[in-house]
Specification:
Length: about 425
C-alpha cells in the first residue's frame, strides 16, 4: 500500500472505498460488540486495514494498559471498508468508534443520528481544541459541527515541478496566473509539456477544478454545495472555473494526449521525472511516488510549491485542497462515550504524533512541527506541514466531500469537460441537475 516513505495508499484506496460504497453486501457479523457498540468493558473500533494500522494498534495497546474499558481494534480490508462499515452501522453490531474521511463520507450516518456530535467535547477540552491544526478539524465536519478527531497524516495537493527545467529556462515557480501562463508558453515553445496530467483517470483532473474554484470564488462556494445546496453549482465562479479549464486545454497546457495518460501506472509522474513535462499538480504522495520510481530525480530535481493565484479571484493564496487527513468518529449509541473521547484525546499526544512521523506521515497535530526533523525528508515534511498549518481553509477533495449520488456524476462531468465532450456551460447545468 505504500510507495517510498510517504503514504500513497490513501488516494488510491480511497477510490476503492468509494467504489465499494456503491454496492451493499450482507451484514458484517460478529465484529461489533452489540447494542450500538459496547458490551461489558469493550469498545469496538473499525479502522481501514492497511499497513498504517500498526500505528493505531500501538495506540490502542497503550490505552488499554490503563483503561478499565478496553478497545478492540478491528482492521477491515481496504476494498471492503466502506461497504462493511455501512452494513455494520445498520446492524446491532455497529462499531463504537470508526475511521472515516469526514464530511460527505459520514453524512448518511449523521443524517441518521448515528454519529455523536463532538463539538462541545472538543471545544470544552483544551487537549482536543488546541491539539490539532484548526483547518484540519474544520475540514472533517459538517454544517459547522465537529464529528471526528484527526487520526492520520495530511495529504494536501501541491504543485510539483522539475527544478532543472525551470533553471534551464530561467523561470521561477509560478505564484500568479500570469507566471503560470508565461511558463506554459515558454515550455510549449521548447517542446515540453507544461503540465503532466493523468487524464485517463478522473481524479487527477478534479484537483484542477478544486483549486481553480477556490482561487476564483473562495472556499465558500464549494462549502455551500457540500452543505447540500446544489444551486451552488450556478455560482458564477463555477462557470469561470470550467471556462479556465477549457482555456488551459485549448492552450495546450496538458499536451495533446493527456486523456490517454494515467497516474496509477506511473505514466504521469514519469513525464515529470524524464523532463517531458515541467509541472504536475498532485497530492503530496507524489514525493513518495517519485522517490520509488526515480530516486535521483526526487532527491535532486523535484521541487514543490503552492497553487498560484488567479487574476480577479477572491480566494486566499494560502488556501489548500486535498485530503486533510482521516478521522475517528464515535457512534452516538455507544455506552461509553466518555471512554471513546478519552481515547480520541490520545491522538493529540506527542507519542502518537511521533509514531506517525516514524511511519513516514506528517501529523496534523499542533505539536508536530518540532518532530519533523526526524522525518525521512525533513524539508518536504516541514514545507508540507507549514503549508497546512498556515492555510485559512483546507477543502476536502470534492468526490469525498460529497455523497456518492453527487460525486459520481461530478467525476463523469469533469471527465467530459476535460475531454472536450461538453462545454463549461453544459458542465454547470449538468451539476445543477444532479440529484
Amino acid at each position: 500500500m505504500r510507495s517510498g516513505i510517504f503514504s500513497q495508499g490513501t488516494r488510491t484506496t480511497r477510490w476503492a472505498a468509494t467504489a465499494a460504497a456503491m454496492a451493499m453486501t450482507g451484514l458484517l457479523a460478529g465484529c461489533g460488540s452489540g447494542d450500538g457498540g459496547s458490551d461489558g468493558g469493550t469498545l469496538t473500533a473499525y479502522v481501514y486495514g492497511d499497513d498504517a494500522v500498526k500505528v493505531q494498534q500501538a495506540a490502542v495497546d497503550s490505552f488499554n494498559k490503563t483503561s478499565d474499558v478496553k478497545i478492540k481494534l478491528v482492521p477491515v480490508p481496504g476494498t471492503d471498508y466502506v461497504n462493511k462499515l455501512r452494513s455494520a452501522m445498520g446492524s446491532p453490531n455497529a462499531p463504537d468508534i470508526f475511521y472515516n474521511w469526514g464530511a460527505g463520507s459520514i453524512k448518511p450516518y449523521v443524517d441518521a443520528g448515528q454519529v455523536a456530535d463532538l463539538t462541545s467535547a472538543v471545544n470544552d477540552d483544551a487537549t482536543l481544541k488546541d491539539g490539532f491544526i484548526p483547518s484540519i478539524m474544520t475540514a472533517g465536519g459538517l454544517d459547522g459541527k465537529i464529528y471526528g478527531v484527526p487520526m492520520r497524516g495530511m495529504q494536501p495537493v501541491m504543485l510539483f515541478y522539475n527544478k532543472s527545467l525551470f533553471a534551464q529556462h530561467k523561470l521561477e515557480p509560478p505564484t500568479t496566473w500570469e507566471d503560470l501562463q508565461k511558463a506554459i508558453t515558454t515550455f510549449k515553445d521548447a517542446g515540453i509539456t507544461p503540465f503532466a496530467l493523468g487524464g485517463a483517470e478522473k481524479w487527477p483532473e478534479l484537483m484542477w477544478m478544486e483549486y481553480l474554484l477556490d482561487r476564483i470564488g473562495g472556499p465558500e462556494v464549494f462549502r455551500k454545495i457540500q452543505d447540500g445546496d446544489t444551486d451552488g453549482w450556478g455560482d458564477p465562479a463555477v462557470l469561470r472555473t470550467a471556462q479556465t479549464v477549457k482555456e488551459l486545454i485549448d492552450d495546450g497546457a496538458f499536451g495533446k494526449n493527456f486523456n490517454s495518460v494515467d497516474y496509477a501506472s506511473g505514466a504521469a509522474p514519469t513525464l515529470l521525472s524524464k523532463g517531458k513535462a515541467a509541472m504536475h499538480l498532485m497530492g503530496s504522495w507524489e514525493y513518495s511516488t517519485q522517490l520509488g520510481k526515480a530516486p535521483e530525480f526526487a532527491e535532486k530535481d523535484l521541487g514543490w510549491t503552492t497553487f498560484p493565484t488567479v487574476a480577479g479571484g477572491v480566494g486566499d493564496a494560502a488556501n489548500i485542497v486535498g485530503n486533510p487527513t482521516n478521522y475517528w468518529s464515535v457512534n452516538s449509541r455507544t455506552k461509553h462515550k466518555d471512554v471513546a473521547i478519552k481515547f480520541l484525546k490520545t491522538m493529540a499526544s506527542e507519542t502518537y504524533a511521533q509514531a506517525l512521523v516514524d511511519n513516514g506521515d506528517v501529523p496534523t497535530t499542533s505539536n508536530a512541527a518540532s518532530m519533523l526533523t526526524g522525518s525521512p525528508n525533513p524539508q518536504f515534511a516541514t514545507d508540507q506541514y507549514q503549508m497546512v498549518e498556515k492555510a485559512p481553509s483546507f477543502t476536502l477533495s470534492w468526490d469525498q466531500a460529497l455523497e456518492s449520488q453527487y460525486a459520481t456524476p461530478l467525476l463523469t462531468e469533469i471527465s467530459k469537460l476535460f475531454a472536450g465532450k461538453t462545454s463549461p456551460e453544459q458542465f454547470v447545468e449538468a451539476m445543477k441537475a444532479a440529484k
